Protein backbone atom coordinates (compact mmCIF):
# COMPACT_ATOMS: atom_id res chain seq x y z
CA UNK A 1 0.00 0.00 0.00
CA UNK A 2 1.23 3.45 -0.93
CA UNK A 3 0.00 6.30 1.30
CA UNK A 4 1.37 9.76 0.47
CA UNK A 5 -0.08 11.88 3.29
CA UNK A 6 0.43 11.57 7.07
CA UNK A 7 1.29 13.66 10.12
CA UNK A 8 3.44 13.30 13.24
CA UNK A 9 3.98 15.23 16.47
CA UNK A 10 6.31 17.50 14.46
CA UNK A 11 3.04 19.25 13.49
CA UNK A 12 -0.46 18.35 14.69
CA UNK A 13 -0.25 14.56 14.61
CA UNK A 14 -0.83 12.40 17.68
CA UNK A 15 2.07 9.99 17.13
CA UNK A 16 5.83 10.48 17.09
CA UNK A 17 7.59 9.60 13.81
CA UNK A 18 8.70 6.29 15.38
CA UNK A 19 5.15 5.39 16.42
CA UNK A 20 3.75 6.43 13.05
CA UNK A 21 6.14 4.21 11.10
CA UNK A 22 5.41 1.26 13.41
CA UNK A 23 1.67 1.77 12.85
CA UNK A 24 2.17 2.07 9.09
CA UNK A 25 4.19 -1.14 8.93
CA UNK A 26 1.57 -3.09 10.87
CA UNK A 27 -1.19 -1.66 8.66
CA UNK A 28 0.63 -3.08 5.61
CA UNK A 29 1.82 0.25 4.21
CA UNK A 30 4.93 -0.27 2.07
CA UNK A 31 5.50 3.36 1.01
CA UNK A 32 4.62 6.22 3.37
CA UNK A 33 5.02 9.96 2.92
CA UNK A 34 5.36 11.96 6.12
CA UNK A 35 3.92 15.38 5.32
CA UNK A 36 3.83 17.57 8.41
CA UNK A 37 2.34 21.07 8.21
CA UNK A 38 5.00 23.61 7.22
CA UNK A 39 7.89 21.61 8.72
CA UNK A 40 10.37 18.86 7.91
CA UNK A 41 11.40 18.49 11.57
CA UNK A 42 10.03 14.94 11.85
CA UNK A 43 11.75 13.54 8.78
CA UNK A 44 15.09 12.39 10.13
CA UNK A 45 13.45 10.34 12.92
CA UNK A 46 10.93 9.05 10.38
CA UNK A 47 13.70 7.97 8.01
CA UNK A 48 15.47 5.93 10.69
CA UNK A 49 12.20 4.32 11.83
CA UNK A 50 11.20 3.56 8.22
CA UNK A 51 14.48 1.71 7.63
CA UNK A 52 13.91 -0.26 10.83
CA UNK A 53 10.41 -1.36 9.71
CA UNK A 54 11.27 -1.93 6.05
CA UNK A 55 8.94 0.84 4.88
CA UNK A 56 9.97 3.20 2.07
CA UNK A 57 9.80 6.76 3.39
CA UNK A 58 8.93 9.62 1.05
CA UNK A 59 10.27 12.87 2.53
CA UNK A 60 7.39 15.32 2.46
CA UNK A 61 5.73 18.48 3.75
CA UNK A 62 2.25 20.04 3.60
CA UNK A 63 2.36 23.78 2.94
CA UNK A 64 -0.56 26.10 3.68
CA UNK A 65 -0.86 28.52 0.79
CA UNK A 66 -3.38 30.73 -0.97
CA UNK A 67 -4.57 30.55 -4.54
CA UNK A 68 -6.94 33.21 -5.88
CA UNK A 69 -7.78 34.15 -2.28
CA UNK A 70 -8.65 30.61 -1.22
CA UNK A 71 -6.61 28.52 1.22
CA UNK A 72 -4.99 25.51 -0.41
CA UNK A 73 -2.80 22.80 1.10
CA UNK A 74 0.08 21.78 -1.12
CA UNK A 75 1.96 18.55 -0.50
CA UNK A 76 5.64 18.29 -1.35
CA UNK A 77 7.06 14.81 -1.95
CA UNK A 78 10.62 13.52 -2.63
CA UNK A 79 12.12 16.61 -0.96
CA UNK A 80 15.70 17.18 0.09
CA UNK A 81 14.89 18.10 3.72
CA UNK A 82 18.25 19.82 4.17
CA UNK A 83 17.59 22.18 1.25
CA UNK A 84 18.44 25.76 2.33
CA UNK A 85 15.19 27.09 0.84
CA UNK A 86 13.17 24.88 3.19
CA UNK A 87 15.05 25.94 6.33
CA UNK A 88 14.85 29.59 5.27
CA UNK A 89 11.12 29.19 4.84
CA UNK A 90 10.81 27.66 8.33
CA UNK A 91 12.70 30.67 9.75
CA UNK A 92 10.44 33.11 7.90
CA UNK A 93 7.34 31.38 9.25
CA UNK A 94 8.66 31.41 12.80
CA UNK A 95 9.37 35.15 12.57
CA UNK A 96 5.97 35.84 11.02
CA UNK A 97 4.19 33.86 13.77
CA UNK A 98 6.07 35.83 16.44
CA UNK A 99 5.33 39.18 14.80
CA UNK A 100 1.67 38.33 14.49
CA UNK A 101 1.46 37.23 18.13
CA UNK A 102 3.20 40.42 19.30
CA UNK A 103 0.65 42.49 17.39
CA UNK A 104 -2.28 40.52 18.82
CA UNK A 105 -0.89 40.79 22.37
CA UNK A 106 -0.46 44.55 21.84
CA UNK A 107 -4.07 44.83 20.70
CA UNK A 108 -5.26 42.91 23.77
CA UNK A 109 -3.26 45.24 26.02
CA UNK A 110 -4.84 48.28 24.36
CA UNK A 111 -8.23 46.71 24.98
CA UNK A 112 -7.36 46.63 28.69
CA UNK A 113 -6.16 43.01 29.06
CA UNK A 114 -2.49 43.06 30.12
CA UNK A 115 -1.28 39.85 28.47
CA UNK A 116 2.48 39.27 28.25
CA UNK A 117 4.31 37.50 25.40
CA UNK A 118 6.14 35.29 27.93
CA UNK A 119 2.79 33.86 29.07
CA UNK A 120 1.93 32.88 25.53
CA UNK A 121 5.40 31.42 24.90
CA UNK A 122 5.17 29.34 28.08
CA UNK A 123 1.86 27.88 27.00
CA UNK A 124 2.98 27.20 23.43
CA UNK A 125 6.12 25.33 24.47
CA UNK A 126 7.76 23.85 21.39
CA UNK A 127 4.57 24.01 19.30
CA UNK A 128 4.07 26.52 16.49
CA UNK A 129 2.89 29.77 18.08
CA UNK A 130 -0.75 30.45 17.25
CA UNK A 131 -4.06 31.96 18.31
CA UNK A 132 -5.14 28.90 20.39
CA UNK A 133 -2.25 29.60 22.79
CA UNK A 134 -3.29 33.22 23.28
CA UNK A 135 -6.89 32.04 23.69
CA UNK A 136 -5.84 29.69 26.49
CA UNK A 137 -3.98 32.50 28.27
CA UNK A 138 -7.17 34.60 28.18
CA UNK A 139 -9.06 31.70 29.74
CA UNK A 140 -6.40 31.09 32.40
CA UNK A 141 -6.51 34.78 33.34
CA UNK A 142 -10.26 34.46 33.81
CA UNK A 143 -11.09 36.99 31.08
CA UNK A 144 -12.94 34.42 28.98
CA UNK A 145 -14.86 31.35 30.12
CA UNK A 146 -13.45 29.21 27.32
CA UNK A 147 -11.37 29.45 24.15
CA UNK A 148 -14.51 29.73 22.04
CA UNK A 149 -15.38 32.96 23.82
CA UNK A 150 -11.79 34.15 23.32
CA UNK A 151 -12.17 33.66 19.56
CA UNK A 152 -15.71 35.06 19.39
CA UNK A 153 -14.88 38.22 21.32
CA UNK A 154 -11.24 38.93 20.43
CA UNK A 155 -9.26 36.60 18.21
CA UNK A 156 -11.59 35.42 15.45
CA UNK A 157 -11.33 36.81 11.92
CA UNK A 158 -12.26 40.50 11.99
CA UNK A 159 -12.52 40.65 15.81
CA UNK A 160 -10.75 43.47 17.75
CA UNK A 161 -7.47 41.65 18.51
CA UNK A 162 -7.26 39.70 15.25
CA UNK A 163 -4.27 40.09 12.92
CA UNK A 164 -4.22 38.41 9.52
CA UNK A 165 -1.60 35.72 9.15
CA UNK A 166 1.21 35.35 6.68
CA UNK A 167 -0.04 34.22 3.29
CA UNK A 168 2.20 32.10 1.10
CA UNK A 169 1.17 32.30 -2.54
CA UNK A 170 0.35 28.93 -4.14
CA UNK A 171 2.85 29.45 -6.98
CA UNK A 172 5.58 30.31 -4.43
CA UNK A 173 4.75 27.15 -2.45
CA UNK A 174 5.17 25.07 -5.61
CA UNK A 175 8.43 26.84 -6.42
CA UNK A 176 9.76 26.21 -2.91
CA UNK A 177 8.99 22.49 -3.21
CA UNK A 178 10.45 22.19 -6.70
CA UNK A 179 13.63 24.02 -5.74
CA UNK A 180 14.07 21.47 -2.94
CA UNK A 181 13.89 18.70 -5.53
CA UNK A 182 10.29 17.68 -4.89
CA UNK A 183 6.94 17.35 -6.63
CA UNK A 184 3.95 19.52 -5.68
CA UNK A 185 0.52 17.94 -5.24
CA UNK A 186 -2.71 19.69 -4.29
CA UNK A 187 -4.02 18.04 -1.09
CA UNK A 188 -7.70 17.18 -0.55
CA UNK A 189 -9.05 19.45 -3.32
CA UNK A 190 -12.57 18.33 -2.44
CA UNK A 191 -12.58 19.43 1.19
CA UNK A 192 -10.71 22.62 0.18
CA UNK A 193 -13.44 23.26 -2.43
CA UNK A 194 -10.94 23.76 -5.25
CA UNK A 195 -12.41 24.52 -8.64
CA UNK A 196 -11.14 24.38 -12.19
CA UNK A 197 -9.78 27.95 -12.13
CA UNK A 198 -7.64 27.39 -9.04
CA UNK A 199 -6.34 24.07 -10.34
CA UNK A 200 -5.52 25.66 -13.71
CA UNK A 201 -3.55 28.41 -11.91
CA UNK A 202 -1.57 25.88 -9.88
CA UNK A 203 -1.02 23.61 -12.89
CA UNK A 204 0.51 26.57 -14.74
CA UNK A 205 2.81 27.14 -11.74
CA UNK A 206 4.15 23.58 -11.94
CA UNK A 207 1.74 21.41 -9.96
CA UNK A 208 2.45 17.70 -10.59
CA UNK A 209 -0.29 15.86 -8.74
CA UNK A 210 -3.84 15.97 -7.46
CA UNK A 211 -4.80 14.07 -4.30
CA UNK A 212 -7.93 12.46 -5.64
CA UNK A 213 -8.14 9.68 -3.04
CA UNK A 214 -8.38 11.13 0.46
CA UNK A 215 -10.06 9.92 3.66
CA UNK A 216 -12.61 12.76 3.53
CA UNK A 217 -13.44 12.61 -0.18
CA UNK A 218 -16.75 11.15 -1.31
CA UNK A 219 -17.22 9.35 -4.66
CA UNK A 220 -18.53 12.44 -6.47
CA UNK A 221 -15.47 14.45 -5.40
CA UNK A 222 -13.22 11.66 -6.63
CA UNK A 223 -14.96 11.67 -9.99
CA UNK A 224 -14.72 15.44 -10.35
CA UNK A 225 -11.00 15.56 -9.58
CA UNK A 226 -10.07 12.53 -11.65
CA UNK A 227 -11.48 14.44 -14.64
CA UNK A 228 -9.60 17.63 -13.72
CA UNK A 229 -6.37 15.68 -13.21
CA UNK A 230 -6.79 14.29 -16.70
CA UNK A 231 -7.49 17.72 -18.18
CA UNK A 232 -4.35 19.26 -16.64
CA UNK A 233 -2.12 16.16 -16.99
CA UNK A 234 -1.70 15.75 -13.22
CA UNK A 235 -0.87 12.46 -11.51
CA UNK A 236 -3.73 11.29 -9.28
CA UNK A 237 -2.43 10.48 -5.79
CA UNK A 238 -3.76 8.91 -2.59
CA UNK A 239 -3.36 9.95 1.02
CA UNK A 240 -5.04 8.95 4.28
CA UNK A 241 -4.05 12.29 5.95
CA UNK A 242 -3.65 10.19 9.09
CA UNK A 243 -3.18 12.27 12.27
CA UNK A 244 -3.98 9.62 14.89
CA UNK A 245 -7.39 8.59 16.21
CA UNK A 246 -7.45 11.24 18.95
CA UNK A 247 -6.76 14.11 16.53
CA UNK A 248 -8.70 13.05 13.44
CA UNK A 249 -10.92 10.04 14.18
CA UNK A 250 -11.82 7.63 11.42
CA UNK A 251 -8.78 8.13 9.21
CA UNK A 252 -6.64 5.02 8.88
CA UNK A 253 -3.20 4.52 7.42
CA UNK A 254 -3.24 2.89 4.03
CA UNK A 255 -6.98 3.17 3.43
CA UNK A 256 -6.18 5.59 0.63
CA UNK A 257 -3.63 3.77 -1.51
CA UNK A 258 -2.39 4.35 -5.04
CA UNK A 259 -1.02 1.98 -7.67
CA UNK A 260 2.79 1.67 -7.99
CA UNK A 261 2.68 2.84 -11.63
CA UNK A 262 1.18 6.20 -10.61
CA UNK A 263 3.68 6.50 -7.77
CA UNK A 264 6.50 6.04 -10.31
CA UNK A 265 4.93 8.67 -12.56
CA UNK A 266 4.91 11.15 -9.71
CA UNK A 267 8.49 10.31 -8.74
CA UNK A 268 9.58 10.82 -12.35
CA UNK A 269 8.37 14.43 -12.09
CA UNK A 270 10.67 15.18 -9.15
CA UNK A 271 13.39 17.54 -10.26
CA UNK A 272 16.07 15.97 -8.05
ZN1 LIG B 1 -4.43 19.59 4.68
ZN1 LIG C 1 -2.62 16.77 6.08
Automatic annotation (TrEMBL):
Q: Where is the Polymerase/histidinol phosphatase N-terminal domain?
A: 2-67
Protein name in UniProt: Conserved uncharacterized protein
UniProt source species: Stigmatella aurantiaca (strain DW4/3-1)
The organism's taxonomy opens as: Bacteria, Pseudomonadati, Myxococcota, Myxococcia, Myxococcales
One GO molecular-function entry: 5'-3' RNA exonuclease activity
Output the InterPro entries linked to this UniProt entry: PHP_dom, PHP_domain, Pol/His_phosphatase_N, Pol/histidinol_Pase-like
Q: Supply the Pfam families for this chain.
A: PHP
